[in-house]
């Protein structure tokens, strides 16, 4: 099973009507054309974007700090696909919502894409931002690339094995 992951889209209905949005959404369709499910880790800001994403695959989502107009959206999710527990929060600091800790935690907020294993033994995935990527100041004494690119994540679950990667576009 493949799951498309995105976060921090920060889209408004006003900026979703033009040709640049159509190009952007076509790119997402291409990136997610084989996914079975999509998870959005908050700061969606537009229900219409969720409707558009649902044309690609079923969507699970949570509320981010910029989704204040949608107080009924959940702040956390605990999902289970192929026997793998997946927790979704907007800020990594909210990992405490889960007891026990899921095998995979998906989060956003920082706009910085990363995949790592936590000290608690879970897999942490931040897909970055699809519209407003941010740089890290330094990575192991190397300057971050100068061209910032939007990004998404792909989480693959296969017979108990978990793998993930970040795709910039």
Description:
The protein is mainly β and 169 residues long. It has a single domain (2-168), classed as Metallo-dependent phosphatases (Purple Acid Phosphatase, chain A, domain 2), CATH 3.60.21. Helices cover 12% and strands 33% of the residues. It is built from two helices and twelve strands. It has helices spanning 19-31, 47-53; strands spanning 2-6, 37-40, 59-61, 76-81, 84-89, 104-106, 114-117, 123-126, 138-139, 142-143, 151-158, 161-168. The strands form three sheets. It has a five-stranded mixed sheet with strand order 3-2-1-11-12, with no helix packed on it. A hairpin with a 2-residue loop joins strand 4 and strand 5. The longest helix has 13 residues, at 19-31. The protein is globular and about 45 Å long. The mean pLDDT is 93. It is an enzyme of class 3 (hydrolase). Its EC number is 3.1.4.-. It comes from Candidatus Lokiarchaeum ossiferum. Residues 1-139 form the Calcineurin-like phosphoesterase domain. InterPro entries: Calcineurin-like_PHP_lpxH, Metallo-depent_PP-like, Phosphodiesterase_MJ0936/Vps29.
């Amino acid at each position: 099973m493949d799951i498309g992951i995105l976060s921090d889209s920060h889209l408004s209905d006003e900026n979703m009507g033009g040709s640049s949005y159509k190009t952007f959404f076509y790119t997402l369709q291409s990136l997610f054309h084989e996914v079975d499910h999509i998870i959005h880790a908050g700061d969606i800001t537009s229900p219409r974007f969720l409707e558009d994403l649902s044309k690609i695959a079923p969507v699970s989502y949570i509320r981010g700090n910029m989704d204040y107009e949608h107080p009924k959206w959940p702040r956390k999710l605990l999902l289970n696909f192929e026997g793998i527990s997946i927790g979704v929060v907007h800020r990594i600091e909210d990992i405490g919502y889960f007891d026990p800790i899921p095998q995979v935690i998906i989060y956003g907020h920082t706009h910085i894409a990363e995949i790592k294993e936590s000290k608690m033994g879970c897999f942490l995935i931040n897909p970055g931002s699809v519209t407003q990527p941010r740089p890290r100041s330094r990575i192991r004494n190397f300057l971050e690339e100068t061209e910032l690119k939007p990004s998404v994540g792909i989480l693959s679950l296969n017979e108990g094995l978990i793998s993930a990667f970040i795709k910039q576009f």
